[in-house]
Amino acid sequence: MGITVGIIGCGSIAKLRHAPEYQANPYVDEIVFFDHNLERAVELAKEFGGRAVGTVEELFSDPTIVAVSDCSSNEAHHISSSHALLSGKHVLCEKPLAINVEYAEKILQAQTISGKKLMVDHNQRFTKAHQKAKDIIEKKELGEVLTFKTSFGHQGPESWGVDKSNATWFFKKERSHSGVAGDLGIHKIDLIHYLLDDEIEEVHAFHGVLDKVDENGKHIEVCDNVVCALKTKKGRLGTAAFSWTYYGSEDNSTTIYCQKGIIKIYHHPKNQLIIEMKDGGVVNYELEPIQTNDNQTSTGVIDSFIDSILQDKEPAVTGEQALASLKVIEKIIGY
Length: 335
Known about the structure:
alpha/beta, 33% helix
């Protein structure tokens, strides 16, 4: 007998990732959809063989629903995730955990009170190339990590969002809050924390609106580009760039510089992991392509979330880890 799950928010992330991955999971029997736009919920219910509810309260009060994906927009996470937890549901929350640290801490409090699982969708941890890189770093195959650089950029959320419009909520300060920093940047901050088993402590950053305009032709209210220098608690130094204005192919690459060589991740379309040794040797790993907006593959996030519930174990990405990444984003954007 499988479990019933709920999805709050029926935009692109629910349609392209959460719903199909729940549908493919052998332990999930039914998906219940809620969106403020009922038509969207009904549409996804038809597509994935679930059912739609007219109010979020129906979803929270339904005793058959064991777990919930919070795919609402950023400003609503602390409300919907907290309510779901306090209603006795396990929660998988989209990133960022909340629009600020204060709201994120409210979700963690709700999780403590409820005793339910809280996982955050930092899906970069689950790719084979990142997991292989972590293994190499942990085993010190190239010695200690010294420095790093990471970037995440594409053409912007207006080409990916459900409406394909520059009226997207990602461009609105009251809803997105941190622009490209909270959309793409937080993924790479979490990734660096994960790969290095470390935490970014000091930040020097520039951010700005360089090109994006809203539906009225005015510059958007949140940053579309970030460039920063970072220092970790263990003393590693690195740089990071996040952008919604990479008007070509997506860049989702990371380089880790170690004492005995370099780890290049997602620099090459075929060899997703490349090790360049100090002595000139090169090792190429052909693992799997990175998931992009144009290439939707299973992230492994949903399977991991369901497994943590069924096996009663700590989720692969905890609320505390997501909070640590959010603290760095707050330092980067300065509010």
